[in-house]
Structure of GH26 domain-containing protein:
Amino acid sequence: MIRRRFVATVVALLTGATMMVVAGPAAVAGSGEERFPYVGAFAGDDPPDDYDRQLWWDKAQEDIGHGRLTYRRVFDPTIPAVGEEDWRKTDAPCNFYSVKPPDKDVQGYIDGLYDDRLRALVEALPPCTVFTVYHEPEDNMSGQTFYQLMSKTVDVVKSVRPDIEVWYVAMAYQWMTNSKGNVATNDGWLDAAKIADGVGIDVYAPRWYYRSMEEDEGFWRWWNLIKVPSGKKWGVSERGISADYGENARASMLRDDWRFSVRMGAEMFLYWHTNIGMDEEWWLLGKRERQVYQNMAAQGRKVG
């Protein structure tokens, strides 16, 4: 299932850092011409297969969205049969939906073995779905292989549902560390981005690398090698901030991230409101940090 293991190939512990202490939440200032991102979340609990999706989505809507979250981040570990898709398990307004080839058979997927399954899946998707296959691929395959996977995905999706957006979702951690050796250059990765409708970034601030998005080296390397040369719209497909430095620090970082995302023209901002697969706390549990996210959701773009 979903796992985010921040292996400390880069040790960036904060020593002697002074955290910004804030008095309370504040709405982001901006001109009337600013186009705010959609705001959403992944919401779940351990064990990842057994929790009540609707219960946790409703709880996230109440606790961090105040009823204004738009996109739910959704994952299936395969290409499920129509009727068994995870997105069906909640009444979220829209879905940012990820699947993977059955048994992670990337070559079989590229060769067309699953075209019929994928076509049926895509035909059944609800409106305003953003779709991706193999999110965070950089630690699993080469850029050229991913370009082939993306080409297959775009061809099949657009043949049956031109209205469905296909995004490439990247991992900031790999673009910073290249720990698996697949992103020494943007070869293949940029080609994949150019045929996608948009590019997303999963970017975390764990205890060992507690940085705002604007300070994140992986984000900037991805931005310069993928987002800018691709010319595609972009969004924050997962953002998680460790609770280890306290609620004031996290609330402050959330506000900084939101201002930065607005300034940089992000399409969406989705928070990782869960501890699934994690060894530290990501849930927004405190009153101040929840109110910050509620303010973001209130400002965020609406669907319909």
In short: Residues 143-160 form the longest helix (18 residues). The chain is about 35% helix and 15% strand. The radius of gyration is 18 Å.
